[in-house]
Design goal:
By secondary structure, this protein is an alpha/beta fold. 33% of the residues lie in helices and 27% in strands. The protein has one domain: P-loop containing nucleotide triphosphate hydrolases (Rossmann fold). Helix 6 links the parallel strand 7 and strand 8. Bound molecules: adenosine-5'-triphosphate (ATP) and magnesium ion (MG).
Length: 254
């Protein structure tokens, strides 16, 4: 079963069709990149996947649950328990230290636990910066705090909207390596990016144009930069299997 299934998703703003009949299945452990020109609907799609916005029509299935049928209360719980969000703008609380920023996310989930928050910071290589305020951290370090915050509840799905958009190359590499590590550990990741290098690390790249899936590219060897354009179009989006060599590894890692 797909961890995420988008069934005929459209989003209309007045006259504008921000998303048009998007169909996509994402398997557990997959790493998907979403690319496309500005205004093509990437953020709109991420907001719908993250249950922060509702489609005008169509259905989102998260772990088999039809999201539109959930009450707003259980939707909040679903979002909190299953999804970790990383944004381009870091959205850290400026007067809280790194570890406290991670603990805020715990607060909404269960009980804040400093030890656990420290362990999450350690995972992103930042245990030495735990007591620093966001302003005392580099852009890359702030983004790593956000990733630690997104990971704290062990989400089934990590959504990142241009996570490296505000970073210089060195910090971008650190953040990409972190995503690689999370993916190797079995996380399911969907990342919006303008950067082909980031997309090359994903198993599949979804290219949006004018709110539609224009094409899907499969990376035969993710991380190598070798791309095999997939001639199949929108309707085939659900059919895309992960490369066989990953299947066994990933299940073993879970
Ligand atoms: N709340 C809204 N009300 C009206 N139109 C909106 C709203 N949100 C997005 N749009 C429009 O929907 C389209 C898709 O926007 P979206 O933010 O998803 O694009 P994007 O692909 O993320 O672009 P970028 O690369 O610049 O971030 C745009 O034309 C945008 O103006
Ligand atoms: Mg956007």
């Amino acid at each position: 079963m797909d961890l995420l299934k988008l069934q005929d998703i459209s989003k209309i703003y007045g006259e504008l069709e921000a998303l048009r009949h998007v169909n996509l299945g994402v398997k557990k452990g997959e790493w998907i990149a979403i690319m496309g020109p500005s205004g093509s609907g990437k953020t709109t799609l991420m907001n719908i996947i993250g249950c922060m916005d509702k489609p005008s029509s169509g259905e989102v299935f998260l772990d088999g649950i039809a999201v539109s049928r959930e009450s707003s209360r259980s939707l909040t719980a679903l979002r909190r328990d299953k999804i970790g969000l990383v944004f381009q703008q870091f959205h850290l609380v400026p007067y809280l230290s790194a570890v406290e920023n991670v603990m805020v996310a715990q607060y909404y989930h269960s009980m804040p636990d400093e030890k656990e928050a420290m362990a999450a910071l350690d995972r992103v290589g930042l245990s030495g910066r735990a007591k620093h305020l966001p302003a005392q951290l580099s852009g890359g370090e702030q983004q790593r705090v956000c990733i630690a915050r997104a990971l704290i509840n062990y989400p089934a799905l990590i959504l990142a909207d241009e996570p490296t958009g505000n970073l210089d190359e060195a910090n971008e590499n650190i953040v990409i390596n972190l995503f690689k590590q999370l993916h190797a550990d079995g996380s399911t990741i969907i990342v919006v990016t303008h950067d082909p290098e980031v997309a090359m690390d994903a198993e599949r790249t979804i290219i949006l144009e004018h709110g539609r899936i224009a094409r899907i590219e499969s990376n035969s060897v993710p991380g190598s930069g070798a791309q095999t354009p997939d001639s199949s179009h929108n309707k085939e989006a659900e059919a895309g299997e992960r490369p066989a060599r990953f299947t066994g590894e990933k299940e073993a890692a879970l």
